[in-house]
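Sequence only, no structure available. Ideas?
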Amino acid sequence: MRTFLCRSLCLGLTLCMAAATQAREWSSPNGYFRVEAEAIAFDDKTVVLKKPTGELIAAELAELSEADQEYVQSREAKEAYAKSVDQMQTWTAADGMKVRGRVLAYGKKDLTVRRQLGKMIVDDKRFAAMDPLHQKLTLKIISKIVGQEITDEKSVEEWGKTLRADTRTFPLEGVLMELESGDEIGVPFFLFAKEEQELLQPGWKAWLENESNTEAQQRESLMMQTQAMEYQRDRENRNQIEAVKLGLLATATGVISIWEVILEPAQGNYYRRTSVMVPAQNSQAAEQMVMQKYPGFRVVGVRRASR
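Reply:
I predicted one. Tokens follow.
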């Protein structure tokens, strides 16, 4: 079972969050794509931008102009980011319990539980020695999966007696969260309130489909982490990050038109809303070209971006 990327890998990419930066123009190398926005997060592959309207978009640095790439790496940009991602967040569990912690990355992880010398051991730690919040979250996860109410140390000890000498393994899918204690725990999506599940899940399917592509997984985790930070700053701002794809613009020649094709994930797919910039003779050709590359989506809009 693939586990969460270690913190040093997924967060050690000079990730920065902006406290308050000036908006600037960002563009593709050939200038067919331009947008006025402020950078609110970046690593060495991706930048997340916030438009004056509050809309959030993410672009790959390699698809942006050389000037944009240099700006992200500049001392000026890094000094502008006075606020880091270390700030704690408050999340709501499905039962209404408030959880203090910050989400770090998407991931899959096994939760292992066994009874050893009369004591409950969770992921090689004695349950009784764990941080109280870590204990509560662990009990909620186990309760949900086994379909039995387990609320405290006494009840988990009683349940543990049914294990005998066996080890129970629970595969989890969700996010890695750092608690105020410094503990890191895998939190499955089902533990969050519905509103917060909807906030965190877009991008999950793309993360799953790229289990052999660390760079793509880091990009999805960065977007999810940034989404979470923006939501914590302004609970009314639930704008999902839109992934902007500019790679096809490199093929633009002559006076052919540039079209923006806006995609929504098909029902049941946890992809992100995506905007694809594409050179084509007309809107129908642009739509057909994009749908060939993005079969898990449906087109919700096509507009001429430039000539």
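Confidence is low (pLDDT under 50) at residues 5-14.
Hope that gets you unstuck.
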